[in-house]
Specification:
Blueprint lengths: L2 H11 L11 E3 L4 H5 L7 E3 L2 H16 L5
Antiparallel strand pairs: 1-2
């Protein structure tokens, strides 16, 4: 497997190729905003290529032993 193939697999898994877009979102605020009632839809960003590449790099490094735990 290559890192590029891992990116391809994750891109498919998270639905970035879906014509309707991904159904995976990243929360851009602290979770405590839920409890004080200030959370809104604007506080979420749709998963994109940057997040997929970051995730693939993390998995690749962990599996390759390139990062210390």
């Amino acid at each position: 497997m290559t890192k590029e193939k891992l990116v391809e697999i994750l891109t498919d898994y998270f639905g970035l190729n879906n014509p309707d877009g991904s159904y995976t979102y990243e929360l851009t605020r602290v979770k405590s905003a839920f409890s004080v009632g200030t959370m809104s839809f604007d506080d979420f960003e749709e998963f994109g290529e940057e997040q997929i590449v970051d995730l693939a790099n993390h998995i690749w490094d962990a599996c390759s032993g390139n990062k210390e735990e």
